[in-house]
Amino acid sequence: MNINIVNLNKTILKCKKCPRLVNFIKKISTDKRKKNINDIYWGKPVTGFGDINAKILIIGLAPAAHGGTRTGRAFTGDKSGDFLFKCLFKAKISNQASSIDLNDGLKLNSTYVTNILKCVPPGDKPRIDELSNCSKYFDNEIYNLKKLKTIIALGKVAFDNCVKFYKKKYSLNEKIKFIHGKSYLLPGNINLIACYHPSPRNVNTKLISERMIVDLFKKARKISMN
Ligand code: SF4
After folding, report:
1. Do 36 and 67 form a contact (C-beta atoms < 8 A)?
2. Which of 7, 58, 62, 123 could cross-link with 3 by S-S, CB 3.0 to 4.6 Å?
3. Mean pLDDT of the chain
4. CB 125, CB 131: distance < 8 Å
């Protein structure tokens, strides 16, 4: 059953459907990492955020252990988020070039950000049953984004899981392969764009550059906003 975004996010925050993930979040939030030893961790599932009238949806696989799981917002408070928001700002998608915490004044322009899985999995590896449990929330988010035109999937794992979700929901058979910058048309006339993950590893190995990711975001804006 689909519910509105406010109630959906309230439900997500209380969700305890995946005991392994609930326990993992608890462990991260009490053990903490040295750098954040004095921080109070969010320690709950992380909902999506942004403009509910969004034409663009940016998705990752799951919140980061000491990023989203600490701050309470996806791609916030870690290096991947730092890079991502620098690029989103340059592409005129966000009002500022950083995403630090829930009270930093960040606003997104016609864009919503979420993760397919709302809880961080150990080793960034979710189980099939966990993805299946959480897919109804992702489904519900897409239902709520009535003006959605484009999904940008950050990283191959998020991309593949998004494709899996659509294949299951619409019994699709087409081959959809992760190729950075490539766009596919999904049911509902939604463009799915593959984008390398903004991780420090991809930045340091020069697999991605700011220019490359900004250009991809600008392209997404162009095809979505008209
Ligand atoms: S991953 Fe999703 S379904 Fe599982 S506990 Fe977290 S919010 Fe609930």
Report:
1. no
2. 7
3. 96
4. no
- Which residue's CA lies nearest to atom 4 of ligand 1? 18
Tell me how far apart the alpha carbons of residues 172 and 166 are, in angstroms, rounded to a whole number. Answer: 7
Question: Which of 222, 217, 167 shows the shortest CA–CA distance to 193?
Answer: 217
Question: How many domains does the chain contain in total?
Answer: 1
* pLDDT 10s digits, 90-122: 999 999 999 999 999 999 999 999 999 999 999
133 lines ligand 1 (CB under 6 A): yes
133: containing domain:
5-37+46-225
Is the minimum distance from the CB of 21 to ligand 1 under 6 angstroms? yes
Cα of 168 vs centre of ligand 1, distance in Å, is 19
pLDDT of residue 220: 98
Q: Does pTM top 0.90 for this prediction?
A: yes
Distance CA 186, CA 166 (A): 8
CATH code of the domain covering residue 148: 3.40.470.10
Pocket flag, ligand 1, residue 67 (CB < 6 Å): no
> In a mutational test of the pocket of ligand 1, which residue from 28, 134, 136 has the highest number of ligand atoms less than 8 Å from its CB?
134
The pLDDT tens digits of the residues spanning 124-163 come to 999 999 999 999 999 999 999 999 999 999 999 999 999 9
% of the chain surpassing 70 pLDDT: 100
CA–centroid distance, 214 to ligand 1, in Å, is 31
Q: Evaluate: CB of 69 within 6 angstroms of ligand 1.
A: no
